[in-house]
Amino acid sequence: MSRDMTDRTFDLTRRAMMEGCVAAAAFGAAGLPRPATAAPGPNDPPPQMMPVRLTINGTPRDLVLDTRTTLLDALREHLDLNGTKKGCDHGQCGACTVLVAGRRINACLTLAAMHEGDAVTTIEGLAQGEDLHPLQAAFLHHDGFQCGYCTPGQICSAVGMLAEVEAGWPSHVTEDLTETATLTDAEIQERMSGNLCRCSAYPNIVAAIRDAAGTDL
pLDDT tens across 190-213, in order? Predict the structure, then answer.
């Protein structure tokens, strides 16, 4: 193929791409309706509902939920516990991290019905009255947040992470697997890598966790 033909093909492709982008922008700006997802058909079966008792921050809560309801949606939409955030809703950002029986999980990836009788702790349940949890206090002291959207998940994840360290769980960067890991910056960064901060407050988050853990480096 000649250079002239190659350039012409590239120009046509680039032009088509640019025209498509402009059209898409105009489509949205004009407030035109976007293609909708398929609505339930008249013959589709109704949602399967079931009673679920969740123990949230020490208090039993009785709900009747669609069996497909995630723990995240149960917390936010049915119990008005909006501290747990919905970020990606695909288990990739960590904003929805809560503690189940002391272990950190992504609430968007698990069904509420799977946690019948489990002890679930959200960010709202960490403080004792007016006394902040040590990690909450450390995040405030070290300014470990900017917009704050990821902060509840960061704090809950850090609580679970410190429990994992205390239990002797190694991470990918732990050098000596026969001893409890020392919480270096590298250890904290690796163990918290599932929690994203779009504002990039990572240095302050690491400092807050190190402070709350009582590690003086």
Answer: 999 999 999 999 999 999 999 999
- The answer to whether 195 touches 153, Cβ cutoff 8 Å, is yes
pLDDT digits (tens, 9 = 90+) for 83-131: 999 999 999 999 999 999 999 999 999 999 999 989 999 999 999 999 9
As a whole number of angstroms, the distance between CA 99 and CA 129 comes to: 19
Per-domain boundaries in the chain: 49-125, 134-212
Question: Which stretch of DSSP H or E encloses residue 8?
Answer: helix 3-29
Residues 99 and 116: their CA atoms lie apart, in Å, by: 14
- Residue 76 is encoded by which pair of tokens? 């936010």
- Quote the pLDDT of residue 39: 62
Q: Is the predicted pLDDT of residue 19 greater than 60, yes or no? A: no
Give the residue carrying structure tokens 């002291």: 141
Main-chain dihedrals φ then ψ at residue 71, nearest 5 degrees: -60, -40
In the CATH hierarchy, which top-level class contains the domain 134-212?
mainly alpha
Q: Please tell me what DSSP assigns to residue 77.
A: I
Beta bridge partners of 62: 53
DSSP states along 38-71? PPPPTTSPPP-EEEEEEEETTEEEEEEEETT-BH
Q: What is the DSSP letter of 105?
A: E
- CATH no. of 49-125: 3.10.20.30
pTM as predicted: 0.78
